[in-house]
Write a structure and sequence with these properties.
The complex is a heterodimer of chains A (310) and B (222). Helix content of chain A is 18%, strand content 21%. Chain B has nine helices and no strands. The relative contact order of chain B is 0.11. The chains are: A alpha+beta (310), B mainly alpha (222).
Chain lengths: 310, 222
């Protein structure tokens, strides 16, 4: 008897042979572009991923124009207006804490040994809007493994650049957050295959306003967990402090998993508005548990009271 | 009545022009929304623009008396238009919230009003403006009598405080804009708190409601 079943890997996910043969060329190009910095977007090629959604992508113009990146100002348009001042080359990332091999990595050395993947992910902002963004990046797990976390490491702490001369939101009277912007994940969240460090989007190196040259993307958590322009990744034993939790602990928790049943104290999280969808008369869409990634990540939180650990 | 004010007659901006100019932001923003030029979140942009203009007109309204008293600039004849514009914009803001933002999802809207302080407060501000708008006609002023009318319209201070708080409560962190509007509201109320006792001392028991800034049509102004 012949049992037919569909292959696990869709043909669309298999890298074309021609592209496969050019993989070294591509790595060389990546090294060069990362070294040159992202002053101008440079093309990046990447392999498709089975983790990508096939939902319609948010128009590139919206992904680049509508950002929360308070280092460049509080309005959504501020990052696009101001982030061009940021120099992203050379860029060094310190990996330290409870690891066998702490080091300062040049960005290109950190990323180059790894194959870039395109991950088309939903992104849900805590403010009630969402996008679908084709990120390009590498699994965070691959990077962490290279530093060899010790068994006492339980959490990962992230830190954004502090450079007031290039980040206008970090100077002046009214600063919206304490700097540096810090974020954190539990180690198992950080090692989850959905968690990536992104170096690009829409086939190009990351635009500055989206967190160039290196940012975190955790698609089942609210967008603010995706710390941008990362300069430091530390493995630690205790739950690290996170910026929005410092700013307002009643409203923003450490976990910040997308959860339509746990409201923000001031507004509902039951629905969201998809950016670029339908103009003035667009309908809200229901927000999904863990932003639609429940199948992959719900097991991380088995037995946890998600209203308490919001 | 016209004859009474005739001696100092100069050309003045007609009140109708205030209404026409006042509606320009609403029409323009709605037009921008229709042609998809309101940015990535057009509904929110329209909703917020309408709310912000309501607050602006409310504050303009509150500036009339201090301007008159301190700077001698008398724009009293436009105050009704400004107040009504604040009300119309609040109504449009509410309509955008109900129709565009929530697609007439009444249970969700009702839950929002009861559960979310910023919505509760915004709704309260609007409800306060309703009787003020309804008693904005000359006939209503005559029917109520100047004193009672002036007392009722003191509610505008409450509406302004609620509107400024409504704005502060919807933002993350402490951005400058809502703080500036809150400061402006506080300043306009503080000016009155300081001026009121002094006025009572210097000009006791004035029976003429005009001293409280109420213009009663059909009665010659002193």
């Amino acid at each position: 008897m012949l049992i037919r079943h569909s292959p696990d890997i869709a043909s669309s996910e298999i890298t074309p042979h021609a592209a496969y043969l050019r993989r070294r060329e591509f790595l060389a190009l990546l090294g060069a572009t990362l070294a040159a910095g992202a002053a101008q977007a440079k093309p990046l090629s990447s392999a498709a991923s089975r983790f990508s959604t096939d939902e319609p992508k948010t128009p590139r113009a919206d992904v680049l124009a509508y950002n929360n990146f308070y280092e460049f100002g509080g309005r959504k348009s501020d990052p696009a207006d101001n982030a061009h001042t940021l120099t992203t080359a050379p860029w060094t990332v310190r990996i330290d804490g409870l690891v066998a091999k702490p080091a300062d990595y040049r960005l290109e050395d950190l990323i180059k040994p790894l194959a870039l993947e395109e991950r088309v992910y939903r992104m849900r902002c805590v403010e009630g809007w969402s996008m679908v963004i084709p990120w390009i990046g590498v699994p965070l797990a691959e990077i962490l493994k290279r530093a060899e976390p010790s068994s006492s490491a339980k959490y990962v702490a992230f830190e954004t650049l502090v450079r007031p001369e290039e980040m206008p939101g970090q100077k002046g009277l009214l600063q919206l957050l304490p700097w540096p912007y810090v974020e954190g994940l539990r180690l198992d969240e950080a090692l989850h295959p959905l968690t990536i460090l992104a170096v690009g989007l829409y086939g190009e190196t990351l635009p500055n306003q989206n967190g160039a040259p290196l940012r975190l993307v955790v698609p089942w958590k609210y967008g603010f967990k995706g710390v941008k322009s990362i300069v430091r990744i530390s493995l630690v034993e205790k739950q690290p402090k996170t910026s929005w939790n410092i700013q307002n602990p009643r409203e923003y928790g450490f976990y910040s998993n997308v959860n339509p049943t746990v409201d923000h104290p001031r507004w509902s999280q039951a629905t969201e508005r998809r950016i670029g969808e339908g103009g003035l008369f667009a309908k809200r869409r229901p927000t999904l548990m863990f932003n639609g990634y429940a199948d992959q990540v719900a097991s991380l939180y088995g037995g946890m009271d998600l209203e308490r650990y919001f | 009545m016209r004859a009474a004010s005739a001696p100092a007659r100069r050309w003045r901006v007609p009140k109708l022009a205030v209404y026409v100019a006042g509606f320009v932001p609403a029409v323009w923003t709605f037009y921008l929304g229709l042609v998809d030029r309101l940015g990535p979140e057009p509904i929110k942009a329209l909703e917020q623009a309408l709310g912000l203009w309501s607050l602006r007109f409310l504050l303009l309204c509150l500036m009339i008396s201090p301007l008159r008293r301190a700077a001698g600039v008398d724009l009293l004849r436009y105050r009704r238009a400004l107040g009504l514009l604040a009300f119309y914009y609040a109504a449009l803001h509410l309509a955008a919230y109900v129709a565009l933002d929530h697609g007439f999802d009444w249970p969700a809207i009702l839950r929002d009003i009861l559960k979310r302080p910023y919505v509760t407060i915004g709704m309260a501000a609007f409800i306060i403006l309703v009787p003020l708008a309804a008693t904005s006609t000359n006939a209503a002023i005559r029917r109520l009598g100047g004193k009672a009318w002036a007392r009722l319209h003191k509610l505008v201070y409450v509406a302004a405080v609620l509107a400024a708080a409504h704005f502060l409560l919807i933002v993350k962190s402490w951005p400058a804009e809502p703080l500036l509007y809150a400061a402006a509201t506080a300043a306009l109320l503080a000016v009155r708190a300081i001026a009121a006792p002094r006025r009572r001392r210097t000009a006791p028991a004035s029976p003429d409601p005009a001293s409280k800034g109420v213009v009663i049509p059909g009665r010659p102004q002193a």
